[in-house]
Amino acid sequence: MSKSTLGVIIGNRNFFPDVLVTEARKDIESLLAEMDIEAVVLDEQTTKLGAVETWDDAKKCAALFDEHRHKIDGVLVLLPNFGDEKGVADAVKLSGLRVPILIQAYPDDMSRLNVERRRDSFCGKISVCNNLRQYNFPFTLTELHTVYPNHKSFRQDLAKFLGVCRVVNGLRTARFGAIGARPNAFNTVRYSEKILQDAGISVQTIDFSEVFGNAHKISDDDARVKAKIDALNAYAKTDLVPTASMLLMAKLAIAIDDWMLELDLNATALECWTSIQSNYGINACTIMSMMSQNMLPSACEVDITGVTSMYALQLASGTPSALVDWNNNYADDPDKCVFFHCGNWAKDFLPDIRVKTAEILGTITGEENTYGAVAGRTPAGPMTFARVSTDDVYGEIRAYVGEGEFTDDPLETFGARAVVHVPNLQGLLKYMCKNGFEHHGAMNGSHVADIIEEAFANYLEWDVYRHA
């Protein structure tokens, strides 16, 4: 993840002691340096103490933020005292920034409620939030209403907030590639490009015939082909794959890489069956797995809203995501199920990753045409699941998110697979079915549901179901 930058507003009221603002500035400078976060903040010469109180202060702060608008990921508001609610709200409004906002307020020391040290930030935070709401700016609250910046709770708040910033800003500028047509049998992966575009997500398309054509133009002895085959061999066990299939995989990977670079794409969704097996002779799963591992997520069956879910989880956690089928019950345990795909999961999920054929697809396309699928088992660990979907009838984006665990329960089958435990899984499945969600979901090896919920619901204003 690239280094984060926060615009910092230090609120002030002039009848509170100056030392409180000075101390707050030192506190936050120390914390941001420790967490490797760049700050854009007024200096102590531009305004009194570098704080924001008056209309003039707000204009100066806004001008500074506007100057750095292309690198500011979010705004942090510090309230070492009651602060000036209009100054804070005006600074945000005048800056023109449309980024997440985190509100922090210092607690009072009960032994120092005197004129020299009294803060009243507890009350001031309510006023600042009131004004931001009046100005129609969404904002994020800390877990504790008042908290010192060096407190463990605030560090967690700030880490979560940076994740929210990554998800919100990343999705608002996302560029996804749709390669090929969705399998005709899968109405479930239909989506609205226009609804996604309204949220800032652009979809670029290409027919697979163009990709195949570009791949076939690459000669076997091209240096890039050798380098890509070396990368494939280093990535997973490929001892079962014929040389001809390795060449096809390498060339297809190069053709897709070139197209993504040309259009600055963040992620892709591929027509993974059956045209590629019938007309090109391999599965694209290993290529997709490598892209996801390299933080360029790739989804099956041209599932663009599926890769939107993968990308959001990746932005939240800083780790790869995968697309899964909610596929099987696990014996008679109502809170466990099997995640499966045939498969293209990133290597992070499959420490025993191996390139094989796709057993199921091979029954209809010929197994010799399905080399390139990856197989392996996900070990026990944390898991967040999510799904984004466009509701074309109501013209909105809906989503669900929740957390569970990967387990080490026995599982004898093939493909990319995992056993997961989700509390009240039956309730989640009822919600998914009744609300028409797809059989695909996205998973990530972390617990980041809070970040996803805050980003989706509060800032992107999507209809979000949080499963708990």
Summarize this structure briefly.
The protein is α/β, with parallel strands linked by helices and 468 residues long. The chain contains 15 helices and 18 strands.
Walk me through the structure.
The protein is α/β, with parallel strands linked by helices. It has two domains: 5-171, Rossmann fold (3-Layer(aba) Sandwich), CATH 3.40.50; 175-466, L-fucose Isomerase, Chain A, domain 3 (Alpha-Beta Barrel). Helices cover 39% and strands 22% of the residues. A six-stranded antiparallel beta barrel has the order 10-11-16-15-14-17, surrounded by four helices. Helix 2 (55-67) packs parallel to helix 3, helix 7 packs across helix 9 (243-263) and helix 8 packs across helix 9 (243-263).
Topology (elements, then pairings):
Elements: E1 5-10, H1 18-34, E2 38-41, H2 55-67, E3 74-79, H3 85-95, E4 101-105, H4 121-134, E5 140-141, H5 152-172, E6 175-179, H6 193-198, E7 202-206, H7 208-216, H8 223-235, H9 243-263, E8 267-270, H10 275-279, H11 285-293, E9 298-299, H12 304-317, E10 321-330, E11 333-341, E12 354-356, H13 359-365, E13 373-377, E14 381-391, E15 396-407, E16 416-421, H14 425-434, E17 440-444, H15 449-459, E18 463-466
Parallel strand pairs: 1-2, 1-3, 3-4, 4-5, 6-7, 6-8, 8-9, 13-16, 15-18
Antiparallel strand pairs: 10-11, 10-17, 11-16, 12-13, 14-15, 14-17, 15-16
Helix pairs in contact: 2-3, 3-4, 5-12, 5-15, 7-9, 8-9
